[in-house]
Amino acid sequence: MPPNAEILFDRRGAAGLVTLNRPQALNAVTYAMVRSLSGKLADWAHDSSVTRVIITAAGERAFSAGGDLRALYDLHQAGRIDEALAYWRDEYRLNAFIKHYRKPYVSLIDGVMMGGGVGLAIHGSHRVAGDRFRFAMPEVGIGFFPDVGASWFLSRLPGELGTYCGLTGERLDASEGVRAGLATHRVNSARFADLLEALCGNVSVDAVIGAFSEPLGPEPGVMAHPRPIDRLFKFDRIEDLLAALDAAAAKNGTDAAFARSTAALIRTKSPTSLKVTLALIRRGRMLDFDECMRTEFRVVSRIAAGHDFYEGIRSVIIDKDRNPRWRPSALEAISQADVERHFAPLAIELDLG
Hints:
Layout: E1 7-12, E2 15-20, H1 31-45, E3 52-57, E4 62-64, H2 69-77, H3 81-99, E5 105-109, E6 112-114, H4 115-121, E7 126-129, E8 134-136, H5 150-153, H6 161-168, H7 174-180, E9 185-186, H8 192-199, H9 205-212, H10 226-232, H11 238-250, H12 256-266, H13 271-284, H14 289-303, H15 308-318, H16 336-340
């Protein structure tokens, strides 16, 4: 493929190699990348000489910072929402294809991994975190919701960590990612090139990655203090969750500073996104993976026809004023019926084949 292509494919030894190749755009995922990767994975699935797939990314800043938001915004502005839904439909199919892939699928993640980029990495069998690994699902800050299978993987993180990540958009580093199960292995970034070369041989993927893996150090960040998260994020209503955070902040105890800053952060997010995201994570615990993907497509079909997603993109990417005007702007203006309509069946559901 041409070296300036958005996504590169190569055969190296026993491996099919994928490289996300938009470093200037933090490897944001375009529709063309989704379609190209889907086709190549299908080819490799039936090629007996390819025994494993490896996905990596160009540049040092990001594995992938998410989907191509500007393209989705432009489609909405042109009245072409059906084309945006085609992107999500095929992206979610790709996420499911990766989840069910019959060959080892190794994600080498050494940079920021957010949103749509998470969907290309986290559903694979092996997820290797480098020094620069940073995971986040910050969609509620742009009027969207954690998708690409987040209803599955966030709902299965330890305790209420997934609820915390989904409602705040806060980042987890490499050690936190491995401890949470988002990554399967920790390898120093300086050894990634050697790891990639070794993975292209015929030694088993488990044996190769095991030989390169590093032990984890002391528990860092939020993983060192799970109790306040589990206690304060256990609720099924955003209003109750915020009330618990406010009460903890008022007590001036050991959790006060965390509770105060977290409540303030959550209140900057789209009220609709907050309520839909919490409901989605709670539902995800009861669903299998494919049903999670179908449910997310129901939700995105309603979000794509709404206001907040495009207002969030406007505030961050278009005008860059960081001052979104959410509609509705208050949690109390959103009824349970308003939330439930996002989950109603569609005339044409997501077909995962």
